[in-house]
Each structure stands twice: as C-alpha cells, then as structure tokens.
Design a protein that fits this description.
The chain is mostly helical and 132 residues long. It has one domain. The chain has six helices and no strands.
C-alpha cells in the first residue's frame, strides 16, 4: 500500500481510465469479426466493435476497482468526485470539440461510469452514509 493522498490517487486513476478508454476503443476497432459471426445478420457485424468496446470497458473497470482496493486501499466511494472528474471533463471536451469521436468513446465511458456508480452506491448503502 502506498501512503499518499487518496484524492490524488483517485484523480490519477480517473486520468488513467480516461486514457484507457481511447486505447480500448482502438483495440476493439482493430479486432476482426470472427468467422462464425460473419454469417449472421449485418446488424450484429455492424455493432461488433461497439459490443467488444463495452465488454472490454466493463472488464477494465472491474479490474481497476479490484486493483484500487488491493494496491491503494481505496474504494470508488471514498472520493468519487476526483475519480469521475477526468472522465467527465474528457467527455465534455469531446462533446464540444469532436462529435465524431464522442459516440465511439461513450461506448467505453458509459459502462465504466455506471459500474463505478453502482459500486459507489452499494458501498454507501453498506456504510449507511447515503447523503454525506
């Protein structure tokens, strides 16, 4: 366990997640459609990279939550503002600057935000600190 300010680590992990979204989208777009799915309707093959992006984002976020707990003794419910801030600023920046990349990166960002939010609320309900 590294003894550093937990807000700083939450912010750094949020930054790493933001960078990872771009990487996850590029990895998912570079994956070819498997041959057994090529014979299925065109709608499945058209959305294959988006589905892979969503699954990779969920797996990456789950792994990030586990590593946050193991390495830094940090839970997403400790400082959620500093964890979500880089992700939200990045999505807002894409909304203002580049609409084409926005929807592609939202396939990675939204599942991660939802998973972190579910983790936040379950931890708050367990601690009975709902409105603090």
């Amino acid at each position: 366990m590294l003894n550093v300010n937990k807000k700083l680590w939450s912010f750094i992990i949020g930054l790493l997640m933001t960078v990872a979204f771009v990487w996850l989208v590029s990895v998912a777009n570079s994956m070819p459609v498997p041959s057994f799915l090529a014979s299925t309707p065109a709608t499945l093959t058209a959305y294959y990279s988006e589905l892979v992006t969503i699954l990779l984002s969920i797996a990456f976020t789950f792994m990030t939550i586990v590593l946050m707990r193991q390495l830094f003794d940090l839970c997403p419910s400790d400082h959620p503002f500093w964890l979500f801030l880089p992700v939200c600023v990045f999505v807002l920046g894409l909304f203002v600057a580049n609409h084409v990349l926005l929807f592609t990166l939202l396939y990675a960002a939204v599942p991660a935000i939802l998973l972190l939010s579910v983790r936040y609320w379950t931890q708050r309900f367990k601690q009975r600190k709902i409105f603090s």
